[in-house]
Each structure stands twice: as structure tokens, then as C-alpha cells.
Known about the structure:
Blueprint: H1 3-12, E1 18-24, H2 33-54, H3 60-68, E2 81-86, E3 91-96, E4 104-108, H4 114-121, E5 125-132, E6 135-142, E7 145-149, H5 173-198, E8 202-206, H6 208-217, E9 224-229, H7 237-267, E10 272-273, H8 276-284, E11 288-294, E12 301-303, E13 309-311, E14 320-321, H9 324-334, E15 338-342, E16 353-357
Helix pairs in contact: 5-6, 8-9
Amino acid sequence: MNLKEQLQNLSAERNTPCVTISLDTHRTHPDNKQDEILFKNLLKEAEERVINEFGKRPAAALLEKMEKVTSAIDFNYNLDSLHVFLSNDTQEIIKSAWKTSNSGVHISDSFAIRSLIKTLNRTEKYLIMLLSQSGVHLYEAVNDGVTDEIKTSGFPFPENRHYNTFPDKGSDPKHLDDLVREFFNKVDKALVRVYNETQLHCIVICTEDNYSRLQQVADKPEIYLGYANIDYNNTAPHHVASQAWEIIKTLQKKRRSDAIIEMKEAVSQGNVLTDLQEIYQAAIDGRGELLIVYQEFSQPVVMQSDRTFDIVSNPAGENAIDDITSSIAREIMSRKGRIVFTSQDEIKDLGDIALKVRY
């Protein structure tokens, strides 16, 4: 099950209670030793809150699950954050390659999935083509790591066999260039076949001249997201993935900037809400088209009705929600709206949270 499917399942669950525990973790020893200690401390806090708020006997099944969950986590293979979701019906453990902006214990009638929505927004699956006349390799990547090498549709290609067979044209640069284009045309057609199956776009690792030639013969130039200069001394998969990831991060930042511009343009049309209560009501009514939240912003509340809440500083107590922005994001996502978490200061002109509505 991929992250999007996990999020959809978690966002759909309503249970009393739903317990979410999130914390930053470490990838290497000995730092990851402290991760298990911190998790156990947070788990103890969660158990105490569940007992105080719901009673030991009514929550017996959940408490039993909480007692055993630590043994299901291998802290030797942590990423950058850990998220554990527990209810009477669910036990889900998700490790993320991104730090969490929502660390701690969260107890409500739904799960706090805000950090994972952010992770989903910043997780990119794409293709990396290592392109040269001595051969072509195609990799599938997620963020800064290669996950697989594509070995279908003609990949990997051997060296370019479109070489000159005419002695009188051996010094003709146009003829030699045409032979390279012919080779790249075959490579491009193979990539289009892979794209049609996967819908994944491609970063190319090659020389500037070769990328220019590839673009000139490409059937679908929009498939290509850009290129990075090839270093013939460093063509290992992990190195080309690191090069490609820098391009992807730049593209992601541009998408966030474009979303902020879209939000500001919608202000003049009267389609933007910045009041937290109004944003929540529009979200549950299915009116949310684009939600932008400043990365560090969160707000605990106590629900007064299905549609209203009081802002509080302490989320403990009946009908309390640790972070209402997680509930808002969940509603927006379930209705096919877009969500952006950003640390870019441009959004601060509108406040910590803004919603573009459909009507």
C-alpha cells in the first residue's frame, strides 16, 4: 500500500479515540538509540491521556494495542520521522523521509495526518535517464534515491551504433550530428512507451549538447523536466539521483510559489478565507479548492458543535482537537482539493493559513 492509499484510509477513519504519535528520528547509530526512548515517553503520555479522558475499562482494547506497538517498530532502520496511528480498528506505522512539523501526541476522533500530507506533497516519483552515446540507462527514483532500473522498452540501450559508413562524410559535422539525433530519436520513443505506462516524468543526466539534440527529436518534450550535466567519473545510480533531486526540489519550490501567487490573485475575486473558523466550515462543506498553511502553524481547539470550536492553548479535555489544521487538511484532501505546506514568507501576507474556495 503506497502513502496516498494509507493517507486515504487514515483520513476516512472516525473512532473514539484515534491516537497519533509523531516524532523526528535519526537514520544512523548511535543517534537512533534515543528515538526508542522518546517514542516510549510519548507512548506513556498517550496512555495516560487515554485513561484520563476515556477511562481504563472503555479503552481496554486500545490500551492493549498501545502496550504492544513498540515491539512492532524496528528503530535500527529509521528515516527522518516516525508516525504511529492507533485506534480500536487500526495500527499503522509509517516512516517518513521528512521531518515532522507536528511532533507529539494527538488524540481526537480522527487521526492527525497533517505531517504525512506534507510528506506526500514533497514526495516525487520520477525517471532518471543517464544519456550518452556510449549507452543509456533509465532508472525509477523517489526523491533522492533510485528504487529500480527500467529494463523494458529497449532499456538499457547499448552504445550508439549509428556511426558513419561513408568515407567522404567522415568530416561532415551535420551528417555526424544527424546520426546522433537518429540514435536519440530511438531512445526518446522508448521513453515515451515507458511514460505511457507509468505517467512518470524524466530528468536527464547528459551534456548540454546532447540534451539539446534530444529535445529537438522528442515526440513529447513536456515529459522531460530538465537535465543535469553528466560527470563521466560519477555515473553510479546514487550520484545521478542526487543530481536529479536538486532539480526536483527546485521544481517543487516553484509549484509552492505558484500556489501562493494563485492564492493572492484569488483575494481580489473574493474567493479567499483567512479566518480559521470560516476555513473549517468551508472545508467540511466541500468548498476548499486550495489550502496553504505556514509550515510551523498549528492550533488546538475544543469543538462546541459539528461546525464551531473555541481556540484553546491546552488540547486536553472532552471534544479537544490537538491541531484543527490537520482536520481541515483531511477534509480538503478527501474532496480532491490541493494542499500546500510552506515555509516561504510570501504567504505571511495572508496570515498563517488561507483557503481558496470553489464558490
